[in-house]
Structure formats: structure tokens, C-alpha cells
## 1
Amino acid sequence: MSTLPNILVTSAAGKTGLPVALQLREKGFPVRAFVRRRDARSETLRRAGAELFVGNQYALSDMRRAMTGMSVAYQCAPTAPNGLHFNAVFTAAAHEARLDHVVTLGQWLSAADHPSLFTREVYLSDLLMRMPADITVTSVNPGWFADNYLMVLDMAAHLGLFAMPLGAGKVKKNAPPSSEDIACVAVAALTDPGRHAGKTYRPTGPELLSPDDIAAAMGRALGRRVRYMDISERMMTKALRAVPPENYSEAAVSQLAIYADEYRRGAFAVNAPTDHVERIGGRVPERFESIVRRTVSARPDLRRSLSGQMRATAAFLRLLLTPALDLQKVQADRDYVRIGDPKFSQDDADWQTTHQPRKTPAIAGFAA
Ligand SMILES: NC(=O)c1ccc[n+]([C@@H]2O[C@H](COP(=O)([O-])OP(=O)(O)OC[C@H]3O[C@@H](n4cnc5c(N)ncnc54)[C@H](OP(=O)(O)O)[C@@H]3O)[C@@H](O)[C@H]2O)c1
């Protein structure tokens, strides 16, 4: 019988949960994968030898059953409303199950007074998870994922446009990590709690890139010229609502707009890139162009074609016809908790301390 710990992976069909579960299986660890439905992703997990747990991870009774017999867990709240509820359910069940170690997926921006409610909830969840003395915790706090850019790859492939509200095209503002590289840091912490308990890691890609660099990397991977277009926040809300097949909820869009604001302010470039993927995860972080090339080779629909161009044009027209969101109203309508004096990351002294910012000219040059 295996003496390795049983590891629960929540959000196991998600961007980071799937590679976390697969990498754990490659290392021979027994994995229970929490998914909400059986589909191709759960089949991949099953074939890799993970035990599937199909349920609702926002429901305490399901989480209790999922944690039975586990000693270590990956805590990953979906990018969706009710993150604090998910994390409260997870934390309560983790106590009852007397887990030894938890690895949380938090955020680069995580801070007590952040303008984003989702981010304040992540900060609070991390604090609550760390309170009991009998569970050790490692936090993995990545910034803006490489995967976020891949959401607009269709338009880049068929219309030659990379459109996002990321500010000036030439300023290097993010070192985007692949989901697999974020996962490898989480896996290191899940499999060696003794070494990683109490630590916070911030995996990044290998180099800071500007929006123009990202467009150029997409262009090289797609074999065509791709031009960056800085769009307004209003246009971004239209685009996120028009993204098929499952549009982002209005609640999520309201928060993603704040993250785009942080991006333009240069928060994701503070003390980036880090060496955490290499030093903790034990592998060389993947370059953005290589991430795009992997995606392109897995998606024949990205090859240039008349039908692809017509699909992308139709999606663009749908975007133009989708109403923009009044982000303040969205938050007010949902009774989002407001705080008196919210602070963007770089205006927050506590955040600055934990990120040990370097006063380099590149960072000082960022404009809001
Ligand atoms: N994206 C970024 O740039 C970024 C940056 C920093 C931090 N983060 C953090 O990353 C976290 C999200 O991680 P991720 O991107 O790996 O996750 P993700 O891709 O959003 O995956 C979430 C998974 O949870 C599943 N799920 C949703 N509701 C469920 C329910 N009721 N019961 C069971 N499963 C359910 C979803 O299932 P289906 O797939 O079947 O719908 C999905 O597979 C967030 O907490 C966010 O704060 C993201």
C-alpha cells in the first residue's frame, strides 16, 4: 500500500487544477480530482489514474465527502462570484478532515484593502486558512496568466488583431506564466510540505513582455502579422460578455476590469519575473511564444481560412452589438461590500513590503 499522502485537487478540470492533478499522478501520488461533471477533461484525469469526485464544490456536504481520507489538498476557487463562500466551505471541511497541509491558489494582487472585492476575499481566505495551528499552508500567488491572452487568439489568428485594454504597447508589464508552470510550483508544495509550509510563491514566466511583444509572439506562432490594439474598458466589458460559449458573469467582468487597471499601472511587473518556477517547481519557465505555439498546434481551427475569417468577423460584430456594462452599477446592484479607502497594489505599503519592489527605472516609468 502507498505511504504517499492522499491529495485532493479542487477545480480539477480548471486551468491550473488539471495540470496539478496530472503532474501529481506523474509523480505517483494518489489523487482525488473534484470535478463538477464528467467530460473529456475528467476522462483525461481518470485515464491518468485520478479518482474522480463529481459534485458541487460550493456545497459543504460534498466537500466533506471529498475530503474524507485526504491529508493534503489544493485549494482553488473558480474565477467566479462567491469565492469567499467556496473558501469558507473548503476551510471548514479541511478542519473537520484534519488535513495536514493545504496549498492555496491566491493572487499576485492579494491585499486587505484592494479595490477588487474578489481580491480582498482571496486575501481574507488565505488569512483564515492560515489561522489554525494544526494545518500548514503554502500560498501560490500568480499574476496575470498567459492563458488570459489565449482567450483572444481567434481574433489574432483570423483578423490579425490582439485587442486588450493593457495601455501603451511598448511598456513591459507582465511576465505571463503558463498554467503548467503555476501547477508545478503548487505540486512542489503539495508533495513536500515540510519544505514549503508557511511560504508564499509567485510563479511568473521567464521575461517581462509588453503588449507589442505579446502581439509579435502571437504573430510568429500563427505565421501572420498581429497588431496590438489598446481598447477601452468599455470595449473590454463588451468583449468579455460576448465571449462564447459561456460568457463571463457581470460580477466577474467587474473585477477583471479592475485587474486590467492594475495591469496598466504596472502592478504585475513589480519584482517580476521571479525565479519561483525554476527554484521551487524545478523546471525552466516556458516562454510565451512556446505557450502560444502549443495552443496553435492543438487547434486546427486557428489556421487561416475563409470560414475562420467569417467566424471571427461575426464574433467581432457580436461584440460591437453587445451592450457595455456600467461597472459601478454592477457592484452596487449586487450589494458588493465597499471599503472606505481602497488602495491599488502599488499604493499599499503592506503589499509593497511583501513584494519587495525594486526601484528600477522600468517600474518607476509606469503610468496609470
Ligand atoms: N486568470 C488569472 O490571470 C488569475 C491570476 C491570478 C489568480 N487567479 C486565480 O485563479 C483562480 C482560478 O484558478 P483556475 O483558473 O485554475 O480555475 P478555473 O479554470 O476557473 O477552474 C475552475 C473549475 O472549477 C469548476 N467549478 C466551477 N463551479 C463548480 C462547482 N460548483 N462545483 C465543482 N466544480 C466547479 C469549473 O468547472 P467547469 O470547467 O466544468 O465549468 C472549473 O473547471 C481564481 O481563484 C483566481 O483568483 C487567476
Note: The first strand starts at residue 7 and ends at 9.
## 2
Amino acid sequence: MSSKKETKIAELCGGNSADARPRHPEWLRRPVPKVGQGRRVQEVLRKGGLHTVCDEAACPNRGECFCRGTATFLILGDHCTRNCRFCNVAHGTAPKPDPDEPARLAEAVRTMGLSHVVVTSVTRDDLADGGAGQFARTIRLLKQQLPGVTVEVLVPDFGGALNLVDIVMEARPDVFNHNIETVPRVYPLVRPQADFDRSLKVLERAAELVRENVVTKSGMMVGLGETDEEVVEAMRKLRGVQCRVLTIGQYLQPARSAFPVRRYVTPDQFSAFEREGKALGFDTVVAGPFVRSSYRAAEVFDDSLEHGSDREHA
Ligand code: SF4
């Protein structure tokens, strides 16, 4: 193996990086995970011609997740039609939806032995259906070919076209996830082509169509200039549209050209967000420096079902 490739795998599995950005506070340093299945996951992805948001977004958890044998699949290409300032995914013209992609993804899930699969996409404002059809085809094929597997989709806002939310929900995912990402005041700074209320409507629509054992989920980053009070207010609004699961994690600048980190939230404050979220009635709130919306998604899903059923029987 070339030394360049070895270096990449070492970085993915938590080894030293040549990156010289400012040092993080001590709670953002963590031990190097074992290499484990990291190489195997990369090989499966390469063979399937599949993308992951883990790689494209330069997620800081790649080492841990790949080495645990998991990843979050990115469908509909690796170029986004929007230009959010916190995101590392490349921008530009994306290819036509690939009709074979759902089958290749299902094969990768089978090979990786996943029991819970997370599928997301770049935002495809160029497509008439925003990519909703490809999500629906992927969910249906996974359910048909791998009946025991639960499917979580993390969708874009579809430009607020609620009929496209219906298309995804009709395919019956187990988790419908749409990230609000940040508080309304910060949207124009980091997400100028999106709208907080539009995202709430997407979640509200999905919640209206939810059947038994299906959960709606959202995620936020902190460190983009929001206040703690604004975070709690956003949580309140999410509960107002019946969102049941929430993830909150520290924003980390993925590239020099990306929006700078405005603050590092302490582990104590993340715990306070979790307590606040439980008090507001979420089934599950996972908050922590390295939490991302698909981080340990299988465990989060199980936890939400358990706590949702506690609530129903209370
Ligand atoms: S947290 Fe999600 S996006 Fe990040 S590496 Fe893990 S599975 Fe991939």
C-alpha cells in the first residue's frame, strides 16, 4: 500500500493529521481508535462506487464509525447544489440520479452486515422531485431485500415542497430525519438558501404521516454564533412540530474556507441541553461535542423506541 494511502487510513482511524488549524479544547481530544474494520468499510464503499457523508463532510467521527464497521451513505452524487458555509461537501453540477445506486447500496449494507442503515443525500434543487424518488426507491429496495434492516433517511428540505416529503414517507422509512442545523438568527450567515420555518414544516409534515414505530428526528450544531437560550427556543419549536429525537453537536470548521467556530460548548452545557430536551418531551436527546445526526444512529433509534413506548404507556 502506498504511504499516502496508509496516512489517509491512519487519519481516518484517529491518527495524526497534518492539519494545522488551532488546537481544540481538551474535551475535543480523544484516544486513537483501533483500526478494526476501517479498511474493510472503505473497500466495500469503493467496490460499490458509493459515497459517504462521513468522507465528503470530513466528519470528525470517521475513524470511530468506520472502525466500528458503519458509515452513512450519500446518494445522488457528491456535489451539492447549495452552498452552506459550515459544510465541506463539494458544490457544483450533480449527475442524473443513477438507477442502479439503490441496488449497489443494498449490496453494501448486506456485505457490511448493518442492522440499521442511514441514507442521506446532497441537496438536489436541480431535480424536479428534489431526489425524493431516489430516497423512496432506496428505502423500498432495502426493505424488500433486507427485511430485518431498519432504515433512517436524512433528507434535505426539498425546497419546502411537502408533496416530496409524502413521497419519502410513503416508502416507510423507520426514521425520518431532517436537520434544522442551527437557530433561525444564524441561518442568513451560514445557510442563506435555507429557511428555519421551512425546515420545521418539513418535519411537521413527516410527523403528520408517521405510523407506529416511526420517529422524526432533527439535528443542530452549536458553535456557529447562537446563544444557549436560542438553542433551547429552537428545541421548543421542534417539539411544537412533534419532533421526537434530537442530536446536538459541536460545529468544527471542516476547511479553512468554511465558517469559523464561534465558541466551544462545554460538556456540562451539552448535558444541560440533554436535560432541557427531556423536560421538553423529546423521547431522546443526544448532545455532546462529537455528536452528529447519524452518530451511533442505531443505538439512538433503539433508545427512542424504548422511551417513546415508556411515554405511551405512562
Ligand atoms: S457520525 Fe455519521 S457522518 Fe460522521 S462518521 Fe459517523 S456515520 Fe459518518
Note: The two ends are 57 Å apart (CA to CA).
